[in-house]
Amino acid sequence: MKGVKKAELPAKICPVCNRPFIWRKKWERVWDEVKYCSDRCRGEARKRGRP
Question: How far apart, in whole angstroms, are the C-alpha atoms of residue 2 and residue 49?
């Protein structure tokens, strides 16, 4: 992902808040596994009973 413009980074939609979030360097190796945009949304999903 080196040298890529922000507008060209991959994005996903968070299933909890329905907002788009873009790829981050810290997610480089686990991007396929990332489902939620934040720890807060991951916690909300657990409360609601989503995996």
Answer: 37
Does 28 fall in a domain? yes
Instruction: Evaluate whether residue 1 is within a structural domain.
Output: no
pTM of the model: 0.80
Q: Are 12 and 20 in contact (CB under 8 A)?
A: yes
SS3 content of the chain, % helix, strand, coil (to 5): 35, 10, 50
pLDDT band at 4 (very low <50, low <70, confident <90, very high): confident
- Cβ atoms of 14 and 37 within 8 Å: the answer is yes
